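Note to self: user wants both folds in one dump. Writing first protein now.
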Amino acid sequence: MKRLFLNLLLLCLLQAANGQVSGKVTNNTGNPLPYASVLLLRSSDTSLIKAASTDETGTYQLQYNGEGKYILQISCIGHDTWYSPEFELRASSPAKDFGTQVMKANLQTLGDVSVRAVKPLIQQNAYGTIVNVESSILTKGNSVLQIIERSPGVMIDRRNGDIAMNGKSGVMIMLNGKVMRMSTAQLLTLLDGMSADDITTIELLNTPPAGYDAEGSAGLINIVLKKNRKKGTNGSFSLSGGYGRGEKGTGSINLAHNQKDISLYGSYTYLHNRTGNDLLITSTQDMPDFGGKLAVIFLNHSKMVQTGQDARAAIDIKLNPATTIGGNLSWSSSRYKFTAFNHLLYNVLPDSLLTFDGTINGDSRSGTMISSAYLEKNLAKSDKLSIDIDYIYFNHNMPTDINSTFSDNHGNRAGNNDTMYSPLQHGHANTTIQVGVGKIDYTKQLNEKIKLETGIKNTHTTVSSSSGLASFVNGAWENRDETVNDIKMIESISAIYTSMSAQINPATSLVIGARYEYAHIRMYEAKNRELTVNRKLGVLFPTVFLTRKLNDQSDLQLSYTKRISRPTYNDLASFAVYADPTAVVTGNSFLKPTITNNIKLGYNYKSYAFSLLFSRDDNPIVRWQLSESAARNLVLVSPQNLAWQHNINLQVNAPVRVNSWWSMSYGFSGGWRHFKLQHTKQPAEKKYMGYNLNFTQSFMLPKNFSAEFSGLYNSESYNGTIKAIGYGALNAGIKKELGNNKGSFQASVTDFLGTLRTHSYNGAVTTEAFDIKSHVRYSAESRKFPIIRLSYSRSFGSASPKTQKKRDTVPDEAERIRGN
C-alpha cells in the first residue's frame, strides 16, 4: 500500500495553472500613471476577484488561479474609468497582456474622487473560508478576538476560555502562518489584547493542505497581519474611543518605507479597556463533606481593567533578482487587573444554611515575543527554495489574593480550621513557553501541468510552570498540597511533507500530499526531575484535493484530510486553580490525542459557496468536565477524552448584491453531531443538531458615507456533558470618508440589543460527579450596556517625491484598494 501511495503521489498530481493579467497605464502625454487601481471582475456578475495598483512605472500584474470569463477595470484620479472587453483565461491560454492603456483625462473629477471597491467580506476556497477584515467598517477599535467571534462557524466560550469551529473544539491558532503553541485560555488572552486594526484577513481552514501543520482536529485559524507595501515613505494612524461598562480606547500607527530593493515596516498599538461581567449559578449536589444533599446559589461579579501594547518591525531586502532575505520582530504585552466578588449560599438540606463571601484580586500579566528570519531563492525559472527560522517567547504571571468569610445561619464560622476553609488564601501561577522553529520548503514546476512542493520542519517547545494555593492557618501560611504544581514539559515535533499537483485537463486539477509528523513529549516534576509523562507518536497525514470546473461560473471540489489535536501543557499538568472552597480546576495526565478524518464535498456557483464536511474524531478532547477527587471532598474540573464524535456539517456562504450601493452576505454552518461520553459514572451518547448563522448588510451611501449592519446566532450546543443554549447579537456601524486625503470617521455599536447572555447546564446528558445539576448564566459586558465606539483613521506620506505634489490624494486611494 505504501509503495502504491508513493507511486500515485509521484504520478498523478497538482493545481490549476496560474493566470496572469498584465499591462501598462499612461496618460495622454505618455507619462506613466502610478497607483492607478486595477480590478479583475467576473464578467457574469461584476464581482471583485482580484485587485492591484500600478507601480511607479505605470505597470501592473495580477496573478490569479482559476479559469473563467473576466472584465478588467482601470481607474485613476482625474481620468475616466476604463473597462476592457470580456476576455477568458484558460489552462491553454492562462495569460492576458493588455499592453499600454492610455487613460483619458477628466479634469472635472480631479477635486474629489474616491475609489470604493473592496474585496467581498467572505470568500471561499478548497481549504476553507477567508474573512477580509479590512472590508468591514466594524473593525476599528475592536480586538482580534472580537473579530474572530463574528466569523462564520466560529464560537468563542469566553467564560471557559475555549474556541470551537463548525461545532468542534480542537482549533489551532496561527499568526502569520506561525502556530501559537499555548493553551486556549492563554491564546484568548493574547488575541483579546491585540487590536483588529493590525490585521488584514482571517483564514478559517477546516481542511488545510499538507504544507500546513497537522495540529488542530477542527482546523486552523490563521490571522494575517497587515504589511504596507506601497512605494515610497508612507503610513497611517487611527484613534478609537468608546464606552460599555467602562471607558475604552485604542491608538495605532504604522510606518513603511519601500524602495526598489528594500522595504521597512513598523507599527505600534496601544489598547485600554475597562469592562466587567456577571455570573449566576444555581445547582443541586450531594457532597459528603457537607453532610449530604445541598442546593447552591453562586453569584459572581467581575471588574477588569485591560491594557495591551503591540509593536512590530520588519525588513525585506532583495539582494539580487533571484534572492530575497528578511526578518521581523514583534512584541505584545497584556495586563488584566481584576476583582471578582463571589457570593455563595449553601442550603444543606433540610434546613441548614451556609454563606460564603469571597473577594479575589488578581493581576494577570503576559508578554509575547515573535522573531523570524527568512531567505527565498529562485533557483531556476520555476524552482524556489525558502528557509525560515522562528523563535517565540511567551510568559504569563498571575498572582491572586482571596479574602473570604464562611458562616452558618447563626453567624458562626463554618467549616474546619484547615487549608480548605481558610479565610485568607493566596494563589500564584507562572508559565513560560519557548518555541524554536526551523523549516525548509522547496517548490519545483516539473512541467506545464505538474508541480512539486516538499519540505521539512522541526518545532522544539519548552514549557516551565509553577502554580498553587497557600492558606493562612494558625498564624502561618501553609501550602495546599493538592493544588501545588511545579512542572517542566519538553515537546519536539519533526515533520516532512510532499505535495504534487497536476492539471489533468483544462477542467480538472488534482492535489495529493502527505505529511509525516513524529512527536515526543516529556513532562517532569521540576523539583525532583521525576518523569511523569513520556509519549512518542508518529502519524502519517494524507491529503487529497480534487477540483472539477463545470463551466466558467461553477466548480466542484472533493477532498480528504487527516488531522490531530495533541493535549496542551495545561491539559496534561496536574496543577490546580482555586474555584470555590469545594472545587479546583486541574489537568489530566492521562489525556490521549485526538485523531480526525475529514471528507469534504464543495460546490461553488458564481460567488456562492456550499460545502458538506463529514468528520470522525477518535478521543476528542473536551474541557471543563466534572469528576470527584479520590477523597471525595473536591470537585475536579478537568479536560477529558470522549470515546468518539461524528459530525456532518453543511456550510453556506451566500453574497447577494441588490444594486450598486447595497450588498449582503449570509453565512450558515451547522448539521448533525453525535458523540459518546466515557469519563462519566454512566457512559452515554448524545445526538443533536447545531448551527451558526451570521449576516452582514453593507450600504455604499452618497457623499462618501457607508454603513454596515451585522448579526450572529449560535444555536444549542454541547461540550461533553455541558449543554449550552443558543444566543446571538446585532451590531451596526457607519463610516464617513473625508476628501483630499483627510481620513475617515467611523462609529459603531456592538450588541445594541444587549442579548449576549449564555446559559449552560451540567447534568443535562447523564449523571455528573456528586450528582451535580447546575444552571450557569453568564452575562457579557454588553448585556448591561451596548459597546459604542468612535474612530478616526488617516493615511499619510508620499509614494514618490516627483508625484507627491500633483497627486496628494493617491495614498488614500491606494489604501482603499485592498488587493494582494
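First done. Writing the second protein, which came from a different request thread.
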Amino acid sequence: MESYDPERRVASPAPMVDAPWSLPPVRVARALDVDPGRGLSEAEADRRRERVGPNRLREHRRRGAWAILVDQVRSLVIGLLALAAAVAGLYGEWIEAGAIAVVLAINAAIGFVTELRAIRSMEALRRLGRVRTRVRRGGEERTVDAELLVPGDIVRMEGGDVVTADIRLLEASKLQADESTLTGESLPVGKDAHDVAVDTPLAERSPMLYKGTAITRGGGIGVVVATGMRTELGDISRLVEEAEGVATPLEARLDRLGRRLIFLTLGVAAAAATAGILAGKDAFLMFETGIALAVAAIPEGLPVVATIALARGMRTMARRNALINRLSSVETLGATDVICVDKTGTLTENRMTAVRLVTPTRDVEITGEGLATEGAFRTGGGEVDPDRDPALRAALEIAALCTTAALPARGDRRPSGDPMEVALLVAAAKGGIRRPRLLEEHPETRHVAFEVDTKMMATVHRDGDRYRIAVKGAPAAVLESADRELGPDGPLPLDEGRRREWLARNERMAAEGLRVLALASREAEDPDEEPFARLVLVGLVGFRDPPRAGIERAIASCRRAGIRVVMLTGDQPATARGIARATGLVDHDDATVVHGRDLEAGLSDERREEAVIFARVTPRHKLDLIEGYQRAGHIVAMTGDGVNDAPALRKADIGIAMGRRGTEVAQRAADMVLEDDSFQTILAAIGQGRTIFANIRRFVLYLLSCNLSELMTVGLASIASAPLPVLPLQLLFLNFVTDVFPALALGLGEGEASVMEQPPRDPSEPIVTRRHWVGLTLYGLLITAAVLAALALALARGMDPEQAVTISFLTLAFAQLWHVFDMRDWRSALVRNEITENPYVWGALALCTGFLAVAVYGPVLPRVLDLHDPGRQGWLIVLGLSVAPMLVGQLVMIVAGGLRRSP
C-alpha cells in the first residue's frame, strides 16, 4: 500500500504557492494575488472555484446495491431454506423446491429494498449538515459554506473552529491547534505567522493550519493556500479505505436474541419432526415440516425492520431540526433521564441586547430591542448624549473596538460574531459610533483572543504615536487587573473599597438576570505590551437574553416524563439563579446554586442529586458531573456549543451540539445537532426515541408470539399424532405474509400520546422481559388452541382433510393478523389507540388479506400450497375462531390494566 507523504503536493490549475510555510506572509498573499485587507471579490472567488472545484473531499465509495443484495443471502435462515429446497429436489418434489426458491427470492427482495432505502436515507442525512467559515470578501466579513472557499480567500479563525482548508497564517494571537487527526500528536501545538524552513516536517510547521484540524485556543487570520483534495487531508483521504460499519447496541441486542431463538427453534423443530416420524407420518413430510418450522419461527426480519425504524426516526428528527450523527443515539435518547443544559440559546433566545451601562458617574438604561440601532441612553434625569459624557462615550468606543463581530453593511445580511459582541456593536451604533469609521481613526494592530484562563480579550489600536488597548471580560477578572477607574476628569485610583462597590454593583445586575461584562482600557507605548495590566476600569454592561417562548412548558413536560433538567453555566451564581427562575427551572428566588469551587472541593452524591443549578463551571467540572450521574445509573444528555464543551459532549451518553451558534468542534463531537438551538427540539427528540424503542419492542413481541404459535401448533399436532394443521410450504407463505408487513407497520407507528408522561425505561432492561415472555406464551397458546379447534371442528363436520387443513391454515393466518391489535399499550383506550390509528396497520391488514385471497382462489398458488375453497361454513369457522384469541387477549389486557392502576 502506498504510504502517506505529507510533503507530496498535487498539481493544480489554481493559484498556488509552493511551501507557503517557508515564505513571509506578504509574499504568500502576493503570490495568491489577494489583498489581505479586502480579500477576494465574489466574482474572482467564483472564477477560481470554477477552476479548482468545491472545497470538499471526494466522498468514499458508497455501499453498492450489489453488496447489499449479497448480504441478504449471508444468513443461517437462508441456508436452512436452501437446504429445504435441495432436499425437495432430491425427492423429486419440484413444485415444493420451486416454491421455496420463490420464497428465497421474495425474502431477499424485501430485505434488499428496505435495507437499501435505510442506507440511502442515512447517507442523505449525513449530507444535511453544512460547515461554515468566516471569510473576508470585497472588504466585508461574512460567514459562508466552507465548500465555497478557494485559494486566496482570507479567513478568520478562533478557538472552537474547525479548520476547513489548508491555511497560511498572516496574523496569530496565542493560537493553538489540535492536529491529532493529521499528525497523531495528542497535545495542541502552538501556531504563529513566522515563516520556517522549507524542509520543516508537517508536524512542526507553525505558520500553517490544516484542513480537518481544530483551533483550541486564541485566534488568527490566514489565507487559504489549498482546498478540497489538494489539501494534506485530501492526500490522506485518497489512501484510506472506508471503515466497516459498527452494529448499534440495539442491533447487537436483537442479533443476540435472534441467535438464541435459532437454537431454541431448531431444537423444537427437530423434536416435532422426530415425534411425527415416530407417530408414523411420512419421513420427508416431517423433515420438510421441521425445516419449514425452523425457518418460519426464526424472526430473521428483526435487524432489517429495526434499521428501518431507526432510520425513519432519524428522518423524522431531521424534519424537526434535530440531526442525528449516530444511529445508536436514537435508541439511547429514549432512556435519557438527566439533561445537562447550558442556558444561553437553549433555555434563552440567545438574542442578547445591551440594556444597562454603568459608568463611574452614571447608571444608564439603553433602550431599543434586538439588532435595531435606534435607541436612547436614559437616566433618572432624562436622556444622556454620549458626546457630552466622556465616560459613556469611552465605554461605547471600547465596545466597538474590542470585538471580532461585525454588523451587516446592508440590511439584507445577518451580523457575524458572538451575540454579546453584536449587542455591544448595536449599543455603540445607538450612540453614533460605528466600528469601520472608528478603525479608520484607530487602526487595529493586534488582537488578543478571549481565553478561559484570563476571562478577558483585548485589541490594540494605533492612537497617534501611541497605542490604545481596549479590554472586555468577566467583571471579577477585569477588576482584579485594574488599578484605576475613569473619573470625570481622567483616571482615579481604584482602592479596595471602590473595588468592593463595583463587585456589589455587578452582583445586583446579575441578580436581575443580566449577564455582565466589564469594559476597560489603557494607553501603551508598545503594541506588544502585556494587555491585561494596569487597566483603567470604564464601566459595566448588562445584557438581557429573554427566555425562549414555551421553555417553562417544556421543562414542566420534562418533569412529567421523569427527566431532570440541570443547568450548567459559566455565569455568576446570581445570574444563573435569575435565569433558572425566569425559565421555570426553579420556583423560588433563593434556590440553591452549586458554585464551581464546591465541585473542586468534592460534591456528595446526595447534593449532586438534589441540585439543578451549577454556576461558574469549567469543562473539567462538566466532565466530573457527567461521570457522577453515570456512576449513579443515569443516562445523561449534555448540550454544548464551544470547543471546551467537546470533551463533555463525547463523555455524555447523548452529546447535543447547537447548530446555529455551535462551533464545528462541538458539532463533530456530538451525537445530535440542533439546527434551531431549541430545548423543545431536545424534548421532541427524546419523545421520538421513546416511540421508536416502543415500536421496536412492539414488533419484536408480535413476531415472537406469531412464531411461537406456529411452533406450538405443529409441535402439539405432531406429538398428538393428529393431522398437520399447516403444511411446510404453507408455513413459509405465512412467514412471508404475517411476519413482514404487520411488523413493518408496527415499526412505523407514531406511538402513544402519553409517551412523555411515563418515566424513562431502564437502559439495562432487555427488549423481551420476563413479563413479556409470559404474555408471549399466553398469546401463543390462545392462537394454537384456536387453530387446533378449527381443524377438529372441520373434520368433525365431515370435511375432507385438504379442506380442513385449509381452514386451520386460514385460522392461523387471520389469528396472527388480528393479533396486531393486542400490541397496544395497556394504558391506551380500547377502540382509539396507537394501533387502530396507525394507517400502516390497516394497509398491512388489507394487503395480507389480499395475499391470502390469492393463495386460496388464485390461478397458481392454491396448487402450490395445496389450498382449497373452505366454503361458506369453513369461512364462518375461520372468522369465528381467528377473532377469539384477540378478544380474549383484549379482555386479559383490560383486567391486567385495572389491576395495575389499583393501589
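Dump finished. Worth passing along: The domain at 353-368+388-404+419-544 is CATH 3.40.1110.10 (Calcium-transporting ATPase, cytoplasmic domain N).
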